[in-house]
Amino acid sequence: MPLKRTLDSPATQTPRRGPKRRHLSSSLPPSSPCASTSSLATPRTPAWAVPADSPTNPFGRIRRLRHDTTLPPPTSFAKHLPLRFQLIHPRADGRDSKRDGVYRVVQVPLNYTLAHLRKLIAYVFDPAKKDEITAPYNLRRPPSRLSCTVPSTKGKGKESTAPTDLVGHLFEVQKQVKVGQDGMIEEGLTWVKSSTTRDPYHYPANDLEGTLFLDDESDQWRWEAEEDIQLAKVWPKGGDLSRAIVYHHNAHTQIHITINTMKIPPRKGVGNRPCLFLAYGSISLSNPDGTLRLGTVETTRWNRVGAYERFLEAEAFKDRAAKGVDEDDSDEDAEGELDPDLVRAVCPITAHGLERPKPVLRNTASIRNGIFTFSCLGLFEPSYSLPC
Hints:
Residues 1-55, 144-163 are annotated as: Disordered. The protein has 388 residues and is α+β, with helices and mostly antiparallel strands. It has a domain at 75-129 and 167-201 and 218-323: Structural Genomics Hypothetical 15.5 Kd Protein In mrcA-pckA Intergenic Region, Chain A (Roll). 11% of the residues lie in helices and 22% in strands. It has five helices and 17 strands. A ten-stranded mixed sheet has the order 4-14-13-3-2-11-10-7-8-9, covered by helices on one side. A three-stranded antiparallel sheet has the order 15-16-17, with no helix packed on it. A two-stranded antiparallel ribbon has the order 1-12. Strand 15 and strand 16 (371-374) form a beta hairpin. The chain is globular.
């Protein structure tokens, strides 16, 4: 008879077990011809996250509607670029009186797109109130001009005057630029143009009979969507003074966006909001006549916590009202597809031409007449069948 071992004996310690195996329904003996190829357990698929660096539906109406009013992820302030926004307009051109005119100096995240930049321009050039202009001075009124000369090709004598019959805004991304001391781009080479109102390729609604837009693509430049051009693509080497953006607000108003060369205080931390450092002069972009105020503008209102977010919310509401998008169907685009920003879980199997699924309360799986049917993630009724 073997001797009993004491409790503190090392031999009595239970050996560590390996990881438990999950109970697989396929290990059960098949009870029907279908059981060997499919199980009665509800199929479970983890929710798939939409990649942040991959456009899910770049041509969807709702994605374009939401993109310019949705801030990108926060980044280090070291990846924010100080930009100078110089306003060029016949009524607000300070160059004729040896002044810098109306301008803004803003630190902008490099992951902002041209769509974000368009909203930012409307925000920082919002007319200042009378008590927000701290040091006004009398500016000699410059001579009135019908349009501003905009350099579109490099070299002297190649400047072209912006036509007055064009409608809508336009971005011109330029390289090999030469910037004057007043912040105006004197010459440059355009290699990308972008506009939600003029581009006939990425925005099919513009390719209609009677719609005015710029000339077709050439060997020197191409159309690109506003949502696809980040500032990191415009300035891949950071503060490159030879690159710039010309924003045509209309036929008479332009904003030249260049790298800021004035001294600004450093910032530490992370964020996704712009910071307005310097502002001079105020004018309404929509109604410039009679709205010009000159002097140093106090920037406190633009840098308050939550001010830019509230502005974007108001812009999103106006965009929805202008485009006829209701809150109830804001999760669908024009083609009836679910908005990927709102629906984080998608079906692993998709099929075209199927009816819109209806919500159910629980997951279901069954075998009827030799046909195995199941619901996807418990969100929709079975809309397709798989033969066993």
